[in-house]
Structure to design on (569 residues):
RNA sequence: CGGGGCGUAGCGCAGCCUGGUAGCGCACCUGCUUUGGGAGCAGGAUGUCGGAGGUUCAAAUCCUCUCGCCCCGACCA
C-alpha cells in the first residue's frame, strides 16, 4: 500500500501523556489515538497489527479444537445476578439501562453469557467436551487506565470457555489451552513465562498467567533460579522457616521510642536490624479488625490474607480505627495486650525470639518480646510476599524476581458457574451432572504492546515479523523516473510474491522517510536511491541489526523470500 | 476513592506569581532553492486560553464551581 493513501500520522515529538515505551511508540508511529481515558481508536497501521495477533490466536485456537463464536457486548443484569457478580464485580462493571429501565452491562468477560448458552443447548455428555471462543471488545471501568493499550477501559480480548463432563477431562482441556498459549506467544515473537497465579475476580481452582518479561511490567513474578517453578508474587508460597532461633528468652522490657513510628525509625533508634522487629499491621474486614504480625523486613500479601480470613475485601485500617483498637497513634501497634483485634502471624514469626514490637502506647515499644509468653496468636500462616533469595517452594534453589506483563491467563473454573447457573447435562448413567468449566483469556492489544516493550530501540519499533503491520517498507529516496520505476517494479513483484509492502511514495526528504520507517518498525526496509541505481543496486536493510545488503533490483525478490518466513501473512 | 499535577494553535510548551494588544518551536499553506538520516530563505494561515459563574474600568492571569486528562497507591486481559 502507498503511504500517501494511508492515514499514518507519525509524530516527531513525544506526546506528553505517554509514559511507557509501547504507549509512546504506538502514538508516535500513528497506530493509535486516544478518544477518552483508556479508550482508543486503532488507526490503519495499528489495526493491521491487531489483526495479525488475532489471526495467530485464531489459528492456534482452532488447531487446539476450540470453535469461534461471537457473543454480544451488552448483556442483561439477570444473568449477572444469577452468579452474584452484578454486585460482586463492583464499580468495574460498565452499567446502563435501556429505555424500559432494565439493567444491562457492557461485558467485561463472558462466563455468564456462555454458560447461559451452553445450559440451554447441551443436554448430553455426548456433546462434550466443548470449547468456544470469541475475539471481542471488552469493557472494564478500570480504576486507573494507563499505558495506552496496556490497560484500557475498552480493549480487545480473546476469551475461550471449555465445558467438560468431569475434572479429568477438564484438565485435558486446560492443558490444550496452556499448550496453545505457548504456541501463540512464541509465534508473536515474545519472551514469556507461564506462572502460577491467583484466580482473582474470575474465581476457580487453579490458574496460570502468561507473563511477558519486561521492566515496565505491572506484575511481579518469582521463579526458581534452577528449576521450573514460577509464580506471581501474589500467589507464590513461602515455605515455613526451617531454623528456629534457640536464643534464651529475656524478660520483656518497655523502652521509650519518641517519634519512632516506621520500621526504619525504630530499628535505627534501638540499633537493631529489621529482622529483629515484628510489625503489626491492622486490617479491617467487613466484620472486624485483624492484626497481622510480620517480620520488619517482610511485606504483607493481602491476597493470602484474604484467603486465610475467607473474605473478599480487606483494607489497611485508617488512623481512627488504629487509635480505637490500640489506644495509640499509628506506628505503635503491637500484639502485647492487644484486645480489640484477632491476631494472626506470618510463620516467620514462629522462628523469632526476643523481638521488638509496638507497645500500644504513644512513643513506646517493647523489646525482647516473645510469642506465647507475652501474647497469643490465633494462628500462623504464610502471609507475606515472596522475595528474591527465599527458598523455592518446589525445589530448584532460591527464588529470583522479575517484572512481567500479563498477556494471557488460563483458569480451571471447576463448577463455580455451572453450579450457580445450573448448567447440567446427563452423564452415561443418566444422572444430571454439572459441567466442569475452564476459561482462557488473551489481551490482544496488550500482546501487541508487550511486543513493542520487548522489541524496540531509540529510533522506534522493531516488530517481530509475524505481527508486523508490513513486511517491507519500500523507500524510494527521490522522485526521479528511474527510482520511481524501480519502486513500482519492486512493489509489484514483492506484492505478487505475497509479501506485504508499505510504499513510501511521499515527496519527502530521505531523512524523513528513514525516520518514519524506523519508527513504524517493519522488519525490512528496501531503499531505492539514485546513487545506488547508478551502480545498479538497491539496498535491503534489516531493521533490527541495521545490516544492509546491496543487490541489483531483480535479485531482491529471492533474498526477501529467504529472509521472511513463508506464509507469514 | 485518597494524594500530587496539568488543561493556552494540530503536537510540544512559555506567559499566570505581580490583571492591560496571546507568544515560541515543530507541523500546516504559497513560492524559490535544496534533495542518502527529521533542509534553507521569503511570505502566510491558525486560538470561544477546557467550561460556567464571579471580582474588576479591564481576566489566560485573581476567586468559586464544574468537566477532562496525567502521575503515585488498592483492581485485571
Amino acid at each position: 500500500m502507498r503511504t500517501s493513501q494511508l492515514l499514518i500520522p507519525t509524530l516527531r515529538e513525544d506526546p506528553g501523556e505517554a509514559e511507557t515505551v509501547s504507549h509512546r511508540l504506538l502514538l508516535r508511529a500513528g497506530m493509535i489515538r486516544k478518544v477518552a481515558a483508556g479508550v482508543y481508536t486503532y488507526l490503519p497501521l495499528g489495526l493491521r497489527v491487531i489483526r495479525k495477533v488475532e489471526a495467530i490466536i485464531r489459528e492456534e485456537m482452532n488447531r487446539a479444537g476450540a470453535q469461534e463464536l461471537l457473543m454480544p457486548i451488552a448483556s442483561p443484569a439477570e444473568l449477572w445476578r444469577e452468579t452474584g457478580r452484578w454486585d460482586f464485580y463492583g464499580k468495574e462493571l460498565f452499567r446502563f439501562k435501556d429505555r424500559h429501565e432494565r439493567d444491562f452491562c457492557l461485558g467485561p468477560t463472558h462466563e455468564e453469557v456462555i454458560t447461559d448458552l451452553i445450559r440451554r443447548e447441551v443436554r448430553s455428555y455426548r456433546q462434550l467436551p466443548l470449547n468456544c471462543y470469541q475475539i471481542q471488545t471488552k469493557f472494564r471501568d478500570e480504576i486507573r487506565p494507563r499505558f495506552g493499550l496496556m490497560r484500557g477501559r475498552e480493549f480487545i480480548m480473546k476469551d475461550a470457555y471449555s465445558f467438560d463432563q468431569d475434572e479429568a477431562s477438564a484438565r485435558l482441556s486446560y492443558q490444550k489451552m496452556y499448550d496453545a498459549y505457548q504456541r501463540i506467544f512464541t509465534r508473536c515473537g515474545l519472551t514469556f513465562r507461564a506462572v502460577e497465579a491467583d484466580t482473582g475476580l474470575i474465581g476457580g481452582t487453579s490458574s496460570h498467567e502468561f507473563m511477558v518479561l519486561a521492566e515496565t511490567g505491572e506484575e511481579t513474578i518469582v521463579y526458581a533460579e534452577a528449576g521450573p517453578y514460577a509464580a506471581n508474587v501474589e500467589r507464590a508460597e513461602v515455605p515455613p522457616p526451617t531454623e528456629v532461633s534457640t536464643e534464651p528468652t529475656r524478660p520483656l522490657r518497655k523502652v521509650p521510642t519518641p517519634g519512632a513510628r516506621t520500621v526504619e525509625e525504630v530499628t535505627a533508634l534501638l540499633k537493631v536490624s529489621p529482622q529483629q522487629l515484628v510489625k503489626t499491621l491492622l486490617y479491617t474486614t467487613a466484620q472486624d479488625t485483624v492484626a497481622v504480625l510480620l517480620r520488619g523486613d517482610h511485606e504483607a500479601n493481602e491476597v493470602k490474607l484474604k484467603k486465610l480470613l475467607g473474605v473478599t475485601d480487606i483494607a489497611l485500617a485508617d488512623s481512627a480505627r488504629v487509635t480505637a483498637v490500640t489506644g495509640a497513634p499509628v506506628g505503635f501497634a503491637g500484639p502485647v495486650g492487644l484486645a480489640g483485634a484477632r491476631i494472626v502471624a506470618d510463620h516467620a514469626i514462629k522462628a523469632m525470639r526476643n523481638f521488638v514490637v509496638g507497645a500500644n502506647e504513644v512513643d513506646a515499644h517493647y523489646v525482647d518480646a516473645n510469642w506465647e509468653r507475652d501474647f497469643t496468636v490465633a494462628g500462623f500462616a504464610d502471609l507475606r510476599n515472596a522475595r528474591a533469595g527465599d527458598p523455592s517452594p518446589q525445589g530448584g534453589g532460591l527464588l529470583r524476581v522479575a517484572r512481567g506483563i500479563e498477556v494471557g491467563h488460563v483458569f480451571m473454573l471447576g463448577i463455580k458457574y455451572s453450579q450457580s447457573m445450573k448448567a447440567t447435562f446427563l452423564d452415561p448413567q443418566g444422572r444430571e451432572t454439572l459441567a466442569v468449566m475452564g476459561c482462557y483469556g488473551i489481551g490482544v492489544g496488550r500482546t501487541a504492546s508487550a511486543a513493542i516493550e520487548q522489541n524496540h530501540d531509540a529510533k522506534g519499533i522493531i516488530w517481530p515479523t509475524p505481527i508486523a503491520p508490513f513486511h517491507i517498507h519500500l523507500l524510494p529516496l527521490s522522485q526521479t523516473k528511474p527510482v520511481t520505476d524501480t519502486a513500482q517494479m519492486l512493489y509489484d513483484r514483492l506484492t505478487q510474491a505475497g509479501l506485504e509492502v508499505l510504499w513510501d511514495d511521499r515527496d519527502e526528504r530521505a531523512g524523513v522517510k528513514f525516520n518514519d520507517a524506523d519508527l513504524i518498525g517493519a522488519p525490512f526496509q528496501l531503499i531505492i536511491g539514485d546513487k545506488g541505481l547508478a551502480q545498479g543496486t538497491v539496498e535491503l536493510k534489516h531493521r533490527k541489526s541495521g545490516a544492509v545488503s546491496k543487490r541489483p533490483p531483480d535479485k531482491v525478490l529471492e533474498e526477501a523470500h529467504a529472509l521472511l518466513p513463508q506464509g507469514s501473512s
The longest helix of chain A spans residues 167-187. The first strand of chain A starts at residue 32 and ends at 36. The two ends of chain A are 15 Å apart (CA to CA). The mean pLDDT of chain A is 91.
